[in-house]
Structures are given as structure tokens and as C-alpha cells.
Specification:
By secondary structure, this protein is an all-alpha fold. The chain has one domain (30-363). The protein is 72% helix and 0% strand. The protein contains 14 helices and no strands. α4 runs antiparallel to α7 and α6 (133-143) runs antiparallel to α9 (225-234). The longest helix is centred in the first third of the chain and has 26 residues, at 76-101. The protein is globular and about 55 Å long.
Amino acid sequence: MPAPAHRLSELLQLVRRESRELFSFSASDRPWEMPLAAAISAGVPVLVATGFGRMADGVVASLAGMAFLYLPSTPMPHRMAVLMACCFGMIGCYTAGLLGHLVPLAEVPLITSAAILVTMICRYFRVGVPGSLFFIMPMAIGTFAPGTLAELPYRIGLFAMGCMFAWAVGLIYSVYILKRRPADPLVATPPAEFEFVYLEPVIIGLSVGLSLAIALLLQLDKPYWVPVSCLVVVQGVTLRAAWNKQVQRIVGTSVGLILAGALLSLTTDPWVVAIAILVLTFVIETAVVRHYALAAVFITPLTILLAEAPDLQHGNVGALMQARFLDTLLGAAIGFVAAIALHNPGFRRRTGDLLRRIIPARMYASGT
């Protein structure tokens, strides 16, 4: 076969393979009640707040309601303890972000160190999906949220109330679902493996911090979306998973911007925002375990509403969507480059040798 024809054949095979990855759906046994409970956890706070004419306060509590997603499928005492610990962690991260906003030039070191530490803790205790995402996302939003020191207790209180509500929803949901499905057995936490618990979180955290630094250097209007998108991609278990997540996030975001444009044109009514947050959360949690790109179509308008809803009436929707797409594209690209480094044996070896000089051997399993 002539060389040009051979290269064309290889290109077509690559396109077909990537298309199968993009459009293939995964099977899932997730009960429909779980997305419904997640929607209640995220949607009810903003519905209640809207009823009192305080939609902006409800959006803060709705962001905290994402804590419900950390509810494991273990027996009741363990699952409620895990959910409570995650709620406290999210409150701490959001508080640190609000405080970081008041300190000049604190954004990059704060989010970098938090991404490293939170990812280490999630890895050590085997916290499942969404991993460190909903710890870092509230911190990033809080870091760039305008406000004064006097407003901090009020905002932290709103976020804490959202987490408390998420815990209560988790309790009611657990009582219901454990009567219909057996809990997963508890397994002993394995020893802390050096690469899994220490090396990879350091690389992940540094890439998240680098993405934020680049966003700030470029003077992007909403720089916090860049590290969030970077974190989503670089957390892929394998390089193939990271590539798939990058492509699916970009494609899903592109389509989602169309939906966001239609939805945001209706956001003059706060009740539309409140109902949209509830409905979008249900759709996302139904779709995300089956196809990430499909879920990303709805993640785009949801994240815009959670971060920007109070200001939508005063902003340019078209400019906001354009900025959201560029932020996602930049963050996903940086995340994929970081994933290449993360899964490169030579880079891992050199970085690991450096960290072993810093981290005492007694803190991780020997021989790893």
C-alpha cells in the first residue's frame, strides 16, 4: 500500500476508534432515587431562598449541597460518618477560599497546596468519585468572590447550612435505599502507597496551581474555571481516561453552551434559576455514570448558574459563554499535558526520588 494511502487508513482507524470512545455508553446500576436525592440536596436550598427573595444566598447553599455526592454505599454508620467528614472538609475549603480572597497574591499558593493536600486525603481514605473536585471548586469560587471580612461569617454560615441539609438528605435517602439494596461491605483501608497517595497528588496539585497561574497571567475574567477543568481531566485513572475526559469535556461543554445560552436567556426570573439547578442536577447524576460528554452538556449551564446566577441579570450572556468555553479549553489542555507527565515513567521516577527525600518512609508502604 502506498505511504499516503496507508497514513489515510491509519487516520480513519484513529477517528473511528475515538468516535467509539466518545459515543459509547456505560452500563450502570445506579438507582434513580440517587439522582433525585442529589437534585433535592442542591435544588431545595435555592428554591427556599428564592421564596424569601434571597436567591444569591440560596446559590451558595446549593453549591454546598453537592456534598451529597460523597455519600458512599456502605452500612449506615460508616456512610453517614464519611458524609459528615466530607461536609466539614468542604466547609473548611470554602472558608479558606474566602479568606484567601482577602490576602493579595494568595490565590495560586492556596489552591495549589489545597489541591495537593485534599487529593492526598481523598486517596488515603479511598474517597471515591468525585474525589477532590467539590472541595477545590468551592474554594476556587470563594477565592475570587467579591466580599469583605465582615461578610465572611454570613457566607460561611450559608455554606454550612447547605452542607447540613445535604447530610440530612443523605440520612433520609440511606434509610430508604438500605431497605431495598444491601450495603457494600466495609473493607480495610490498604497501606498508603507512595505513588498513589503522595506522588500523584503532588503532580495533580502542581498542575492545578499552574493552570490557575496561567489563567491569572492571561487576565481571564473567570480564572477559577481553569483549575477546575484541569482537575477534572488530570484525575483520570489512566492516560486514556484523561484523554477521553478531555475530549468529552470539550465536546460536552461546546454543546452545553448552546443549552446554556437558551437557558440563561430565561434567567430574569429567579424561580427559573432555582428550578433549573434542581432539574440539571438530576439529569447530570443520571447521565454521568453512563456518558461523561452527555453529562458535560448539562454540567456547563449548572456550573454557570452556581457561580454566576446572582450577576446574570447584569452581565453579557454571550461574553460569559465565550469565556466559559475558553476557560474549559485551556484547563482541559493543561490537565491533559499534566496527565501525560503523570503517567510518564521517567518523570514519575525523578519526581518520586525527590519526594522520597522529603517524606519519611514510615508514612507509606515499603516497596511502593
